[in-house]
Write a structure and sequence with these properties.
- This protein has 2 domains: 219 residues, Creatininase (Rossmann fold, 3-Layer(aba) Sandwich), CATH 3.40.50.10310; 99 residues, Rossmann fold, CATH 3.40.50.
- It is globular.
- Helix 6 crosses helix 7.
- The two termini are 34 Å apart.
- Strands 8, 9, 10, 11 and 12 form a 5-stranded parallel sheet that branches. A 4-stranded parallel sheet has the order 2-1-3-4, with helices on both faces.
- It is built from 11 helices and 12 strands.
């Protein structure tokens, strides 16, 4: 299909038991499944989003809505400039919803682009109730199932109940008094069994595939043409710990004074893959954040400053930006960061 999948997530705590990258991982795992099953292009995941209720917790990172919109628009432009005529944002974080929904309407209305937004936890809400006999939430049974089904080694076996709050109609608090948030008295924070998680994720993937197939059939009838897919690599394995793979419980045991932020050009899959490896080797910080893909990076200095500002809230003193050489002059415009060009 002449279509590219663009996973979007966030970097924020998911209780003491799930990794900081849960939102990004779930969106990426689902996108990888859809890419393989439907022969669709897969763009690099954007691992940062708009975070509000959990921003006071250690190492939570936020972008402004304006910056997130610019990044999402640039990913659509990457797809279009690569010859694709459609983009599907596969979103894993509720704080991104309004921005991405507004953008797909704009892309369709003003640029005649085929655009869609897929959010797995909404799409699978009835599956959550069917499999677990309860509802989901932030770091609740549905997100725990996604991680257990795909990366069980990243799930901590701890009692989640002391870290849980249940929101009822008419009540909200910022910051949230707990990092596990249930949006209904019928929600559950307890992780499921591995068997339940595997069944659940298979049903989620099947629902997403069938839903996207219906959209594509309609778009094909409107003239969307076939095109061979391309795939950007997603992995980054630095010598320092990866924030996206840590739980709040593990993070609390670390004494972090420095962090590195890989910012990589994504003009071609091959070049992006090479720079992922180089960025892993170049990290000299206590912890490495997930890589930010940059395309037409007019927004780059602002994004770096917003990520760095989030880190400084949590007493990170040294921030290293590892970037493609072509992005060095843009990254250097951000204040109070060290820039290492590849």
């Amino acid at each position: 299909m002449s279509l590219a999948l663009a996973p979007f997530g966030a970097t924020e705590p998911h209780g003491p038991h799930l990794p900081y990258g849960t939102d990004t991982m779930a969106a990426t795992w689902l996108s990888e499944h859809l890419s393989a099953e439907l022969k669709l292009a897969l763009l690099p995941a954007v691992p940062y989003g708009v975070v509000s209720s959990l921003l006071a917790y250690p190492m939570a990172v936020t972008l402004s809505p304006e910056t997130l919109r610019e990044i999402a628009l640039s990913m659509a432009e990457l797809a279009l400039d690569s010859g694709y005529k459609a983009v599907v944002y596969v979103n894993g974080h509720g704080g991104n919803t309004d921005i991405l929904l507004s953008l797909i309407k704009e892309l369709s209305r003003e640029r005649q682009v085929y655009a869609a937004l897929l959010e797995w936890w909404h799409l699978a809400s009835d599956i959550t109730r069917m499999v677990f006999s309860c509802e989901g939430g932030h770091a609740a049974v549905d997100e725990a199932a996604a991680v257990l089904a795909n990366a069980p080694h990243l799930v901590e076996q701890v009692d989640v109940s002391p870290y849980t709050v249940t929101w009822r109609p008419g009540v909200r608090a910022y910051p949230s008094p707990a990092p596990v948030m249930l949006y209904s008295s019928r929600s559950s924070p307890t992780p499921p069994s591995r068997e339940e998680a595997s069944l659940y994720w298979k049903l989620v993937c099947r629902r997403a595939k069938l839903t996207l197939q219906e959209i594509l059939e309609g778009w094909e009838a409107l003239g969307l043409q076939l095109k061979p897919p391309a795939k950007w690599p997603q992995e980054l394995k630095p010598p320092s710990p990866m924030l996206s793979e840590l739980t709040l419980a593990k993070l609390s045991k670390l004494h972090l004074k420095s962090a590195s932020i890989p910012v990589l050009e994504c003009s071609t899959p091959e070049g992006y893959g090479r720079e992922l490896k180089q960025a892993a080797e170049a990290s000299s910080a206590d912890i490495t954040l997930p890589p930010l893909p940059a395309y037409k990076p007019t927004w780059l200095p602002k994004a770096i400053e917003e990520i760095a500002s989030s880190l400084r809230r949590h007493k990170v003193e040294r921030i290293q930006v590892i970037c493609s050489r072509s992005l060095e002059k843009h990254a250097a415009k951000a204040s109070k960061v060290e820039v290492t060009a590849l």
